[in-house]
Amino acid sequence: MTRPGNVWLAETAGQPDGVRRVWRNEDLAAISTGRAWLALGAPLLRSVDFMQPLNRAGQLGPMLAYPEADRSWWLVPLDAENAVADLPMLTVRPAGWRLLCPPADGYARGRVWPERRTAAGCSLHRTSSVRAVDAAGCLRRHADEPL
């Protein structure tokens, strides 16, 4: 639990010892949004589509995947809500919303961080990057897809 990504994620919770205790029991820790980041909910398959462009741009930040539910949550800066307000496939969870997280280097109850971070202070997605990827069509619903 002392890997830098785990340290960073636990510290953002405000009660890192409690988070680490939950992780030692191989469970999900409920970490509230709004202290260091917000959670940007998106369909998982669409998120996978735009991981590569973000990585190429050097802006791939933390994303939690839950394949069973086709959901992902990107950890984004606290000011992200306005930047993506017009994208109906995305849901910015408000401050205080609790994201159930495994450790940054682990897997628990079907959730995983696909991109393993080794450096402390995992970079958060710049909302401009999310907008740039959206311009490429990764987050737009295709006309032939059901709502």
Describe what you observe in this structure.
With 147 residues, the protein is an alpha+beta fold. It contains five helices and eight strands, in the order ααββαββαββββα. A four-stranded antiparallel β-sheet has the order 3-4-2-5. The chain has a two-stranded antiparallel sheet with strand order 1-6. A two-stranded antiparallel ribbon has the order 7-8. Helix 1 packs across helix 2. The radius of gyration is 15 Å and the shape is globular. The C terminus is likely disordered.
Summarize the structure.
With 147 residues, the chain is of the alpha+beta class. The chain has helices at residues 4-11, 16-24, 44-56, 80-83, 127-135, and strands at 29-32, 38-43, 63-66, 71-76, 91-93, 98-101, 107-108, 111-112.
